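ZP: hey, is the heme C complex queued? I don't see it on the tracker
AM: it wasn't, my bad. submitting now with these inputs:
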Amino acid sequence: MQIRHLFCASVLAIALSISAQAAQAAKSGTHFLADRHVERGVACSVCHGVKTPKPGAVVETAQCNSCHKSLDEVAKRTAKLDPNPHYNHLVGLNCTECHRGHQKSVNMCASCHNIKYNVP
Ligand code: HEC
Ligand code: HEC
Ligand code: HEC
Ligand code: HEC
């Protein structure tokens, strides 16, 4: 019983923090990647594969690529940038190493290089 309560409390805390983030996003005008997809009609279940994603849910690159095709395909769209953020000299770069669903995205290249990107 105790454990179940703790579990429920943490689910609630995370649910609240996600909705708090969403409210904050709406107020400040910043939209995270998942919000922008939802606005375009991409339902939670399309990225997540389940109707109600649970805390700790992740989205595999294959799921992103069901629409975006591949890293090489998105690399064509960012070809004007040098270096191209989608050019991959690292084996098996996943979309969510940079693009985050419900939080600020990160420029993982900057952990090794002095390269500046604005990751949407
Ligand atoms: C564009 C794809 C996409 C859509 C659409 C999307 N998500 Fe996510 N979601 C992600 C990614 C990627 C993660 C992994 C964590 C992160 O990047 O924020 C995630 C993580 C989550 C998590 C786990 C968060 C945590 O911190 O444990 C929950 C819960 C979740 N999503 C709920 C939802 C709900 C509810 C919707 C619909 C309103 C939704 N997602 C729509 C991509 C998406
Ligand atoms: C159901 C199809 C679908 C899935 C699944 C999907 N996307 Fe998208 N995505 C779109 C559409 C449609 C657009 C708007 C048109 C475009 O730019 O291609 C878009 C736009 C984007 C953009 C442009 C920036 C922005 O915010 O508008 C990025 C970055 C992106 N998607 C990343 C991802 C990542 C990462 C995932 C997996 C976590 C993902 N997408 C999953 C359909 C999808
Ligand atoms: C190394 C970080 C990184 C990774 C990994 C990454 N992206 Fe991106 N992505 C970026 C950056 C940076 C931009 C914005 C480029 C710009 O400023 O025009 C971007 C832009 C995009 C766009 C919008 C392109 C446009 O027309 O403006 C899409 C769609 C996208 N990414 C999808 C993906 C998908 C799908 C994956 C995984 C297969 C992925 N990205 C992996 C950094 C990354
Ligand atoms: C773990 C550290 C690390 C990360 C993360 C990393 N790089 Fe590198 N990168 C290196 C090293 C080390 C070299 C030099 C050795 C080599 O050429 O392979 C290099 C070389 C390069 C070069 C020179 C040309 C080439 O292909 O050798 C480019 C361009 C580059 N990186 C771009 C990127 C971009 C874009 C990202 C993000 C997608 C990135 N790097 C992420 C370590 C990293």
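AM: back. Residues 34 and 105 are 11 Å apart (CA to CA).
ZP: great, adding it to the tracker
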